[in-house]
Design brief:
Strand content: over 45%
Shape: globular
Helix content: under 10%
Largest sheet: 22 strands, parallel
Oligomer: single chain
Length: 432
């Protein structure tokens, strides 16, 4: 057990000195405590290694300040920079004021501080056994996520309250996770399960599996975008000479997945020369290719996801989106690529208390959806075709158990594009 104050961490220090002191305190791993109440300014990323727990006492607050050099993260693990898998990290009791501070763009080649696609104030990449408990962020700015985790196994995010403009909890690929006891009030998605993503919003692509999201509140606000949860899939092709590339497109070449990190302005580029670098970024044919992972994966999505005790208190066009992107920021289904099928999504005791048009919007292939003991209010379920060359939909099985709705049974499900939906209803209470 060590107290960060013994390493010079103090409410009277400037942000750079405090960041250096806290880095010294956590460098040896083990249990690190910050106990003296007050507001501590920080600037440089605090880099956390294996078997490290950081405990923040009552009345302890961190406040971000810009770095004199490149502004990165508040907390990040060593493996985010080295590519190694960290394990056994815990942050408990963190209360963070973002203070308007956000990371520098990765596209500016700030590779020593910024990992392309990793953009949370609290960021973990390549991590096993992570716990973030009793965390508060009241002022999330418009660019960076609150908590961002990618390439993970066994994570718990518990007792969090995050308010502001961007995603509260943003996950990339990984398996076995719990997000519970969350209070969210964000302009953008409170929770994002983004197996695919914008090139600037996840450092790696891959499946998100075996997760529970429970006892979470989507609080009302003046305005909003996005969804309570985005469940995002994607697919891409092998590189071919002359293929058209736009921002966030992915290709596989020589056992490596590359992504185009460009301005989201709709510009289409022709790729003539294959990318061959094994790490970092390289501009080829005017395309800024990022080497994101060494494998031959061609698709990703979400499966075995269980939402339980979710309370939608905000007016939203859509509460949950089973999603493909198709805009200038990203087209997550590349034409004629092998589309993934998202699997086994369950909603249990989800209560819609506000004006939500669509409880669930699905534009990706999905096999099984189950809705249990939930109140959908006036919302319905909508299946759409992304209408991109090569896409195939093989139908969805829906099961409703103990569901209440203000709509008639015939109005609960819409499938205007001819996507087959096989539905079963058990002990439901719909409008006559």
């Amino acid at each position: 057990m060590r107290n960060a104050e013994d390493y010079g961490f103090s409410i009277y220090n400037n942000a750079d000195d405090n960041s250096a002191a806290l880095n010294k305190a956590v460098a040896k791993g083990g249990d690190v405590y910050i106990t003296a109440p007050g507001v501590y300014s920080v600037s440089e990323p605090v880099i956390i290694g294996n078997d490290t727990s950081i405990y923040f006492g009552a009345g302890v607050y961190l406040k971000r300040e810009y770095c004199k050099n490149t502004t990165g993260y508040v907390f990040v693990n060593e493996g985010a920079y080295t590519g190694s898998q960290n394990k056994n990290i815990m942050i408990q009791g963190l209360k963070l004021f973002c203070n308007g501070v956000e990371s520098a763009p990765a596209a500016d080649n700030n590779g020593d501080k910024i990992v392309p696609g990793l953009r949370g104030h609290i960021s973990f990449y390549h991590i096993t056994n992570l716990s973030i408990r009793d965390c508060q962020i009241p002022d999330l700015p418009a660019k960076d996520f609150g908590i961002h985790v990618c390439d993970f196994e066994n994570i718990i995010i518990e007792n969090v309250r995050i308010e502001g403009k961007k995603d509260a909890v943003h996950l990339g690929c990984g398996n076995k996770f719990v997000i519970r006891h969350g209070i969210f009030k964000t302009f953008d998605d409170p929770i994002a399960l983004n197996a695919h993503d914008y090139a600037s919003s996840n450092p790696m692509l891959g499946w998100i599996t075996d997760g529970i999201i429970e006892d979470c509140y989507d609080l009302d606000d003046d305005s909003t975008t996005g969804f309570f949860c985005r469940i995002l899939a994607g697919s891409w092709c092998d590189w071919q000479k002359g293929m058209e590339i736009q921002n966030s497109d992915s290709v596989v070449c020589n056992n490596t997945v590359y992504r185009a990190l460009m301005k989201p302005d709709g510009t289409v580029y022709k790729s003539v020369t294959p990318p061959t670098h094994k790490s970092g970024m390289c501009i080829i044919d005017g395309i800024n290719w990022v080497a994101v992972q060494n494998n031959q994966e061609h698709s990703c999505g979400c499966k075995n996801i269980h939402f339980k005790d979710i309370f939608i208190e905000k007016n939203r066009p859509v509460a949950f989106s089973v999603h493909f992107d198709k805009d200038n920021f990203s087209r997550s289904y590349y034409p004629n690529s092998p589309a993934p099928v998202q699997e086994n999504i369950t909603f249990e005791n989800v209560i819609v208390n506000k004006n939500v048009s669509e409880f669930l919007f699905s534009i990706t292939p999905v096999d099984n959806i189950k809705i249990i003991n939930s109140d959908l209010g006036n919302s319905f379920i909508n299946f759409k075709n992304i209408n991109t060359e090569g896409i195939e939909y093989n139908g969805t099985n829906l099961c409703f158990i103990g569901v209440k709705s203000n709509l008639c049974e015939k109005d609960i499900i819409k499938s205007e594009d001819g996507i087959e939906c096989k539905s079963q209803f058990f002990a439901c209470n719909f409008k006559n």
